[in-house]
Amino acid sequence: MTLRTGHIGLNVSDLDRSLAFYRDVLGFGVIAEGKEEERRYAFLGSLAGDGRPVLTLWQQAQGSYDKTRAGLHHLALEVDSVDRVREYETALRDYGVEFAYEGVVAHREGSASGGIFFHDPDGTRLEIYAPSGAQGAPVPSATAPTCGFF
How far, in Å, CA of 30 to CA of 129, rounded? Predict the structure, then answer.
């Protein structure tokens, strides 16, 4: 048996704010939502797909993401092309997101893969990348993968 990722669950401090970001900016569809005051959540995925959740938001965090604690390092989302990465970059800039690096960066020196690195409204580290097309893009660090220490 081979394991594969089913969905990713993120704790968020404000479900409405996070839904606006993941739904309206990143384009996830809401598959199901729990609206009971102390048990708010949303299952997100592609409504055109099989209806399976890709990401679940749980409103139960009291503060922002803390990269110094054990747990999720970052969430990487793959798209088909660097042009698509740049489309997301434009939408995220319009939304007011701050980026870890300027523009598309390669994953490491000589790599064809690369993307953009930023944070969601709670500070969770996110990456949108393409597996190819980033040849010649800048590399923020020659000694570590780009996604490692942003």
Answer: 23
Q: Cα 118 to chain center, whole Å?
A: 8
- C-alpha span between 73 and 68 (Å, rounded): 9
Please determine, for residue 47, whether its predicted confidence score (pLDDT) is greater than 80.
Answer: no
Strand locations in 4-145 (E): 8-12, 29-34, 41-45, 55-59, 75-78, 105-106, 114-119, 125-130
CB 131 within 8 A of CB 81: no
Q: What is the DSSP string of 10-34?
A: EEES-HHHHHIIIIIIT-PEEEEEE
- What pLDDT, in 10s, does the model give residues 13-42? 999 999 999 999 999 999 999 999 889 999
Pull the structure tokens for residue 26.
């990143």
Closest CA to 26 of 61, 55, 64: 55
Q: How far apart are CA 128 and CA 85, in angstroms?
A: 6
CB of 146 closer than 8 Å to CB of 108: yes
pTM for the model: 0.92
- Token pair, residue 59, equals 């409103």
The three-point CA angle 84-85-90 to 5° equals 95
